[in-house]
Amino acid sequence: MPQMSPLMWFSLFILFSITMILFNQMNFFSFKPDIIKSTKKMMMKSKDQTWKW
Fold first, then answer.
1. Is residue 53 part of a domain?
2. CA separation (Å) from 6 to 1, 2, 11, 28, 31?
3. What is the spatial distance between Cα 38 and Cα 44, in angstroms, rounded to a whole number?
4. What is the structure's pLDDT at 48?
């Protein structure tokens, strides 16, 4: 079984690192949360409540 030189291991590490970073970046920026919309709806719902003490 042939051995890999240290430079080859380093280039493989760089390749996998760049792939992982790009994959994570794509997943992070493709997700659009609806947190702002849901908080506005919750605030409106809470204003509509009338409390009878």
1. no
2. 16, 13, 9, 33, 38
3. 10
4. 59
Tokens of 37: 């919309």
Q: Which amino acid is at 16?
A: F
Q: Which residue type is seen at 22?
A: L
Domain that holds residue 33: 4-46
Question: Quick one: pLDDT band at residue 20, thresholds 50, 70, 90?
Answer: very high
The answer to whether residue 52 is domain-embedded is no
Whole-model pTM: value is 0.53
Q: Which two tokens stand for residue 42?
A: 């919750």
Stated as kind and residue range, the H or E segment containing 49 is none
